[in-house]
Structure formats: C-alpha cells, structure tokens
Amino acid sequence: MLKTHDLPRIFLLSLLLWFSPLLQAEQESAAFTQAAALFAEASFDKTGEAIDLLAASGDPEVVPYLQALLDGKLYQHEEQGTLVIVADGASTDGLRKIPTKNSLRRSLRAAIGQLSLSSPDASVRLTSANGLLETITPDMAPQLRGLLDKETDPAVQEALSLGLAMADLNAAEQPVRLAAIASLAGNLNPGVRNRLTTMTTDSDAAVAKAAQASLKAIEDRAELYGYAETLFFGLSLGSVLVLAAIGLAITFGVMGVINMAHGELIMLGAYTTYIVQQLMPQAIDYSLFVAVPAAFIVSGLMGILIERTVIRHLYGRPLETLLATFGISLILQQLVRTVISPQNVPVSNPSWMSGSLEINSVLSLTYNRLYIVLFCLMVFALLYFVLRKTNLGLQVRAVSQNRAMARAMGVRSARVDALTFGLGSGIAGVAGVALSQLTNVGPNLGQSYIIDSFMVVVFGGVGNLWGTLVAGLSLGVVNKVLEPWAGAVLAKILVLVFIILFIQKRPRGLFPQKGRAAGD
Amino acid sequence: MSEGAHLRHTEAGQPDASHTAILYLEDLNVSFDGFKAINNLTLYIDKGELRCIIGPNGAGKTTMMDIITGKTRPDSGQAWFGQTVDLLKLSEPEIANAGIGRKFQKPTVFESHSVAENLELAMHGNKSVWYSLRARLSGEQQALIDETLQTIGLTDHYHQAAGALSHGQKQWLEIGMLLVQKPYLLLVDEPVAGMTHQEMERTAELLTSLAGKHSVVVVEHDMDFVRSIAHQVTVLHQGSVLAEGTMDEVQNDQRVIEVYLGE
Amino acid sequence: MFITRILHNDRGGQIMLAVLAVVLVLVPVLNLLVPEGNFLHMPTYLVTLLGKYLTYALLAIAVDLVWGYLGILSLGHGAFFALGGYAMGMYLMRQIGDRGVYGNPNLPDFMVFLNWKEMPWFWQGFDMFWFAMLMVLLVPGVLAFVFGWLAFRSRVTGVYLSIITQALTYALLLAFFRNEMGFGGNNGLTDFKDILGFSLQSDNTRMTLFVLSGLALAGGYLLCRFIINSKLGRIVVAIRDAESRTRFVGYRVEHYKVWVFMVSAMLAGVAGALYVPQVGIINPGEFSPLNSIEIVIWVAIGGRATLYGAVIGAILVNYAKTVFTGLMPESWIFMLGALFVLVTLYLPQGLAGLVQNLKDSRWFHKRVQA
C-alpha cells in the first residue's frame, strides 16, 4: 500500500527534476537564500534550522528540494552556494553533498508532508494527508485544523479529519482524546487500528476503555467486510462453476445427453485462447475479444462433430452415451498432449484484468474475479435469451419435451439436436476462455471440472437454467465459507458429500421439473 | 355382511372388510403443477364387487390407481383398504403385499424372463431377500402356475420369453400375474386394449368369474366391454365422481352425455 | 453336484473355469518346476502380472453383477477395490515393524515422518491378519450399504446414480490424498516386506498369491452365478427390466439393490486385497474416477450380463494395455478412447454377444442348407 502512495510522489518528483533549470529562479526567494547560507555551515544543527525555515515558508515549490535532501540527492554549489538537485549518475564536480541523519530525515518527512498539504493539486494533498497518519504529532493539530477549514475536496477533508483525530489522540486533555477515539470508531485504516490497539493499555482507564470500544467497532466492521470478501470469492468461484456447468445444463438438462467430454470442450476453449495469444502477441489486451468467439466456434464445431458421429446413434441410451463420450474425452486429451504438449501452456492475462478495485483498506475486489462474475452473468443472460426468445430456443424446448410431436409439427429434430449440442459445447469453449485466465491450462484442465459441473447441474435441477445459476453460485459460496476452517480440500469433499446426500433427499435437485410426466 | 359385527376380527394380512366396503377413498386431492388431477374424489368399492370406471381422458382414472397403489401421494384426503390398512402410510410393495394387485395400462411384464418365471415372480409368498436366495418352487406353487397358465391360455408358451409375446398375450400374462398374486382387490387398467373381439369376450368372462371372490376395479374406454361386464359403473370427470349407477342409468344421465358428447 | 448345477446352461462359464483351472496348474509348473533358462520357464514377474489380471477379472465380475444384472452403472467400484486394497495394505504396513527407514517399531514410516506420536485409532487391530481380512470385506461392504441404502431408498437411478457414484470415488480420492487422513497421503502405502511371515519377494509367496487370486476368481464367479441362478437373481433382473412393476408385485426393490450392491462391493474389496501384495503398493490414484470407468469398459468389451465376458474383457484389455503402453505409450490412450466409442456403437453385447451371434448365424445357415 505504501508503494501505491509513493508512486505519484515519485512521478511528480521526476517531473520536477526534468524542469529543474526553471526552478532555479525560485531560489531567489528569501527562504532559499537563508537556507542556503545555513546549509553552507555544514553542521547538522544548522541543516535542521534550514529545513524548518524552508518548511515554515509554506511554499510548495520547496518540496522537491526537501525530497532530494531526503533522498541524498541535494548538493550545494561550493562557490555560488546555490542548491542543486543531482540526477542519478550525473556529475557532481564542484558540488558538495548536504549530509543528513536520522532525526533530520524524520523532520524532513514531516515537512514534506505538511507542505504537500497546501499543494494546489488535490491528489497530491490527499496523498500527503494519508501519508501524514504515520508521522502525526499533537502539535500539528492547529495547523491541520487550519487546512481543514480551507479544504474543499471531500476526500482530502476526510483524510485530514482522520489525521486530526489521530493527532488529537495524543493530546493532553482527556476530553479531546476521548472525542478523537470516539470519532475513530469503525475506521478501517490499519494505522488507526494499530494506534488504538496500543491505546487499549493506556494509563488513563477511561481512554483505554473508549479505545477498546472503538476498536471493537472497527473489528466488527472489518469482520463484516471479511464476510463480504468471502462472499465475493464465493461468487467468483461460483461463477466459474456456473460457466463450466451451463453448457452441460443444455446438453444434459435440455437434451438428456450425458457428455463426459464436456470438460475437454472447456479445455479446447482454453487452448484456443492460448493459440489466439500466440497469433497476436502484440495485442494481448485484445486477445480475449478474439478468443471468446473463436473458442465458441472451435468447441461448438467439435460438439457438432461429436453429436453427428457418435451421440446421434445413442439417443435414449444414456449410460452408453456416458461411456462413448468418456472415450472421446480420453481421445481429446491425448490429442492435445500429442499435438501441443503434455505440459501446461502459458496464457497471459490482459493488463486490464490485473489490479483490483479498492472499496476500502480491508476490502478490495480483484478485477479478474470481478470480470469473471460479470462475464458469467452475461453468458447466462445471453443463453437464457437464446433459449427463451429465439426460434431456435423454441425448437430446442419443443424437441426436448416431445420429440415425436415436434417432428410432426415440422421441426427438423436432427438439425435441432446438432445445433443444441453445438450451442452447449460452444458455451463450454467460452467457459474455457474464462478458465484460462484463472488456472493453469493443460490437458487435464477439463477433467477437474467435469464432476463439479455435473454436481452443479444435478444439484440445481436438470433442465432448469436458473437452477444451474443458483446452484453454481451457492456451491461456490458454501465452498469458500467452509474453506477457512476446513481447508480447501476438505471443503471440497464436504461439498461433494453434501450434494450426494442432497440428491438422495431430493433426487430432482433444487428446482425440479414438475408434473406427472416428470414422475414416470 | 353389514350385520356381522362379530366378524370384526381379521385373519392376519386380510383386510378387515366387515363394513361391506373394502376400499375407501375420501376427499382425495392431487394437483400437478397447479393442474387438479384429482378433485375431492370420494369412492367406495364393496367386497366382491366388479366396478367399472369410465371417463374421458384426463379424468383422473390412472392417477386414482396411482394413489391406491402408493405411486402417487395425495395432497389431502384418506385412502383405506378395509377398516385397518391406511394406504397412504404404505409403500408400493407393502400395498401389493397387503393384497392389492394392479395391471397397468401399458402391459408391463418382465420381458427377459420366461412366461412361467413371470408368474413365479408375481406369486404371493415370502418376498424377502434372503428367502429368495434359497427359494425353490414347491409342488403347490408349480401347480398354481400350471393352472394359471391354463386359465390365461399360455400353457404352450411356458418357456417362451415374455418379451416375445404378442400384445394381447402380454395383457393376459399380466392378468395371470395378478391372479397368482392372490390379491383381495384387483385394479385393472384398460385390459382389452389391442385385443380381438374373441379375446375380449374371454377377458370379460374371466373378470366376471373373479368378482365375488375378489373385488375388481376395471378402468376401460370400450363401452361395449363395460356394458358386457359391469353391474356398477362410476363416471369420473375432472378428478371427481360425476355419476354412479348401472350402465343404463349412467348412459341416460344428462351430465354424462354432456361430458362425452360436448356441449 | 453343486457346481455342475450352478454352471448348467453356462457354456461360457464352463470353458472359462476350465481354462482357469489349467492355468492354475500350468503356471506353477512352468514357474517352479521348469528350470530357469529352459525356454518353457515362466519368469516370476509374469506370474505376478497374470495374478494382477486375475484380480482385475474378479473386480470386473463384481461390476458386471451390478451393471449387467441389476442395471446400475457404478462409476465408483474402483473405490471398493481401493478400500479392500488399503485394508490389506495397512496389515502389510504393520508387518514391516521396525524394518522401516526410520526403524520405529510402533509406527509406519509416514507417521514418523509426519511427527505423529501414536497410531490413530483406525489403525488399531490391523496387525492381526484375521482382523485385516475382516475389514477387507467390511469396509467396502459398509460403505456400499450406507451409500446404497441412502441412494436406493430415495430412488436415485440411471445416470444420476452413476454420477454420484463417481462423485463418491472422487471425494475419497481427494480425502486419501490428504496426509491428515492417516493413510500415507500422496504416496500411499508401500515398501511391504512380508505377509503372514512369508517374504513378498520370494517366488513361492508370489506363486501362492497368484493361485489364491485364481481361486478367488473362480469362487467369485461361482458365487455370482449362484446368485443369478436363484430366484433372487430373477428378481434382480426383473428390477433391471421393469423396476416399478417389481415393486407392484410386492418386492422391496431397495433391499434387493442394497444386498447385491454390497455383495459386489465386497467382491471388489477382495480383489483389491489380493492386488496390493502382488503389485506392492496402494495409493490414492486407485480412487481416480478414470480407474472406475475403465473397469466398466472391460465389462462392456467382454459383454455385460454374462459374467465370463467380464473376465475375458478384463484380461484382454489389460493385456493390451501392458503391451501397448510398453511399445508406444502415446497410442494407448487413443486406443482406450476408441474402444469406449467403438464398443458402445458397434458391439453393445460385447465379445460374448458377438460369439453368440456368430454361432446363431452359423446354426441358421446349416439349417437352411439341410
């Protein structure tokens, strides 16, 4: 976190360094002349005075010099006495480095912080206000109050009042301290938390008690966000499950076909992503937009091929279909091993997938997980639309409910079968693109998802897309809730056992298809 | 029999039909997905009676049989076999062993077993796992099989696989399986579908001969067949009883005519 | 006699058992009596390989009993096999005593490695052979009972059942991979030294295990055939063909299913127990869903609901596996995959059905000519 705070500061500094000849002119000001004289005396005491002098000037332009001093890059011209910031590796002929020591560096940091607070740039003010929290002292309180009154930016205001409260924690008067403690209740800043933790053993009993109360509020809130985080992890895992299972919900749920090669169709999608990235190494950021339709086509065509050559002959014999498609899954796995490699292949994440959305200091949502959840919902919505609102969807549902009748009504059931299977397989390929961003892409990728996928579909209720969505998401959440105390593997086992027991209680899943026909 | 309060005690396993009726269905309701298949159905079958149940498609005839045999549980209502057996608390095999046999609409026999084996499997007796591991046909049981085969006219097909029988023969075999089960109550769903006229007559004969010893409930579409066997006819419509009486009474009932012929 | 009565009408079984009897006599002669160097001599590794095939054949019979006759496609029978194997493996572990790498007389090596101080409760008793053998039957049997009772009572059937059997073995796979489970984790149980005091390395012990595997196969075959021939067998087939009809004639279908499932699981457990001392290791890999589904294909290839077909299928496929993984490892998976597809598409009755068809058609031709 410190790093991200430092980033803009360093950026700004380098920018200032670039224009340093222009800044030379600023040294004309009185503060600079006096400080330069003090620096020239080459004693730590005088250097300290010079720093105070510069800091008191309240002029933001002195910040780069103070920063350079802190970084050991500030030199003084031996003859002219002017101050020079020397870039890394530049010549220091005729220059004298101004030395510092620990105590000086501490006051340097404080000075830089305070000065940045009056920067015209709100983001600089915010950064420095946040940075203040670590170095704050009670005597800064009046100054902070002054700044707070003038401040217009709400984020900076908040940071300043937090800093003020932190400063007040060390005030001499008990009421001020208590008020500060109370105002910090529920604040999630780790600095606040540490500070309050030390204060729970304060010699002043009232303060200690108040600190405990505020700390409790903080911990409660952190716990709440902890739950939110678990929920988020669960939803993202659940989204992965839904993505993996939703194609199966079509082939198994709507068509009644047990496709054990479903996992391998997912794997093909992941490998398609790999190949697309190999073909466009310059444009990884856009690769997924190409990979999603490509994977849909690759896996979809493979699905149609499987349906036309094998499954077509096995309708009405689910157990045989299961065995035959298992054979196909073995062949596809070995094909990838032979043609590409038995090892995992590297698939890169586009840059927009990295990083995270920070809600607050305890809760941040990584973008890749966030996108998976969104992607899952998009795929689901699209599929739902296709099945509910399009002509193909109507035919698919007709064939799944009464094949003979549908055929009598002029539906070309063979074509519908192939297309439905292709659709389910294509979605598996799309899921593969998503998975390639989360896990290792290798020949066994599909195997590890096939059982989970079946569990999701069966748990949700066969033939019910909503059931698949709810089942997938809830299983994901349950898994993540169990994980902290059971461990990842045991959590998975527990979920499996739970589903096995659940199916025995409700063989038709969460959302069973109703009616007399379903009972036969 | 109604006067025979002294007959209240029952033999082990026999339904207590001391109050004339052997089957009581009261206020039954079943709905599938909002569709009311059975709607406040109340029906009594007397001991030894032969009752025909007719009604248009979707009247709830098969669902009623499903309730009696334990396949479907009603949402509300009562179903008693005699005075003492609560059918709603029993599973299908328990109901079968209590003495209710059922022939399905679509003939279902054990296709890969021989005709004789089908009868052997259906025969009444101990049906536990360990017993069946050591079970051998006794002379008595063998005699019952032979006799039944005679009755249903399949003696020549003793060793033939049931799957290879014609549709009518399967119907007969299923009736034979009902007979060896020795039930007190027989539920027969469309027994003459796919039969020739001659076969139909024999079936009518057989069912009539069964009445008296057993109670028989026949669901049938073929009106001629119903007329040839029935004393009492019940008409079901939209899940409840529309009319009850002799064939003539029922056929002249205005409501029944409306239901069958439309408005 | 009892056996002839059981095998009456079972030509395939008669031939299979006769061949088995010849093999059980011939192999010891070729291995122990024919001197080494003679080209007729059978090396011990081959005996052990054959022994392994025989245990697979027994496992295949167990699967055929539930799949072929009861109609339940179990994709988790590898779990019962593995549990039987683990029970035997635990006994063999205890027999190592202080000859392990760490030389701890009380604890197996992997427990010492995990810094365990004492034996977990479920390892108690496995130093006694009779107890371990009891567990070989009981552990798979009880699991099959609990699982079957839950599943069959709530009428889970068809592909649903297949999928949850697969989930069962998958859950066990994950569980046995964990070190905390106390079964050696990833590495499983291995480095066995001897059984009942006989060294597992010696030719005689290996020969004995081979012969025992053969006898177990014969015994398992006769047991299954006895069950199938009884009235119980006819009920079981009736359940397969028309489950709800069977209920309506008064049979408690779930009792029959659980009973047969348990017998089958125990047979699989025995197969596992004979397998482990011959291959010298048992690890969680045996629980992998792939293993279980492979067993099904042995049965499918041989021809389901014939029992002897399962034996033939198991031995043929495993022989092919040995040959082809040796010659060109890449090709084996392709072949196995193709087998799954081709057998289900073109050979639904398996080899046994093929032979039957050929015989029928030849008989038919003769009749026509006559």
Automatic annotation (TrEMBL), chain B:
Alphabetized PROSITE patterns for the sequence: ABC_TRANSPORTER_2
Top-rank taxon, per record: Bacteria
Pfam families the record matches: ABC_tran, BCA_ABC_TP_C
Alphabetic keyword roster: ATP-binding, Nucleotide-binding, Transport
Gene3D superfamilies: P-loop containing nucleotide triphosphate hydrolases
Protein's UniProt keywords contain Transport: yes
CDD domains xrefs: ABC_Mj1267_LivG_branched
InterPro entries: ABC_AA/LPS_Transport (IPR051120), ABC_transporter-like_ATP-bd (IPR003439), ABC_transptr_urea_ATP-bd_UrtD (IPR017781), BCA_ABC_TP_C (IPR032823), P-loop_NTPase (IPR027417)
Name of the protein described by the UniProt record: Urea ABC transporter ATP-binding protein UrtD
Organism: Thiothrix litoralis
Protein's gene: urtD
From TrEMBL, chain C:
Listed name of the protein: Urea ABC transporter permease subunit UrtC
Organism this protein belongs to: Thiothrix lacustris
One Pfam assignment: BPD_transp_2
PANTHER family, per database record: HIGH-AFFINITY BRANCHED-CHAIN AMINO ACID TRANSPORT SYSTEM PERMEASE, SLR1201 PROTEIN
Topology in membrane: Multi-pass membrane protein
Location(s), subcellular: Cell inner membrane
Lineage, uppermost ranks: Bacteria, Pseudomonadati, Pseudomonadota, Gammaproteobacteria, Thiotrichales
CDD domains xrefs: TM_PBP1_LivM_like
Keyword Transmembrane: yes
The UniProt record lists the keyword Transmembrane: yes
